[in-house]
Amino acid sequence: MKKEFSETKTVISPDGKTITTMTVSGSSETTENSSTVSTTFTASNTTTSTTTTTTVKNGEK
To answer: How far apart are CA 45 and CA 1, in angstroms?
Structure first.
């Protein structure tokens, strides 16, 4: 009997600049007296940049 599984998690850093996506997938196969499990793990990081522009007019503090 063969079972497939896949799970994806996305984590965003507290400052909102880094997004990490992790995926675990694989399969397990069970026969009468043995079982085989194979898994694959992938992770990717995405960094976002935020630009803040402040405009100060002459004479203002």
So the answer is: 35
Distance CA 34, CA 37 (A): 10
**pTM of structure:** 0.54
**Domain regions of the chain by residue span:** 3-53
Nearest to 43 by CA among 6, 4, 8: 8
User: How deeply is 45 buried, as exposed, middle or buried, from its count of CB atoms within 10 A (0-12, 13-18, 19+)?
Assistant: exposed
d(CA 41, CA 61): 53
pLDDT band, very low/low/confident/very high, at 17 (cuts 50, 70, 90) = confident
CA–CA dist 10, 42 (Å, integer): 12
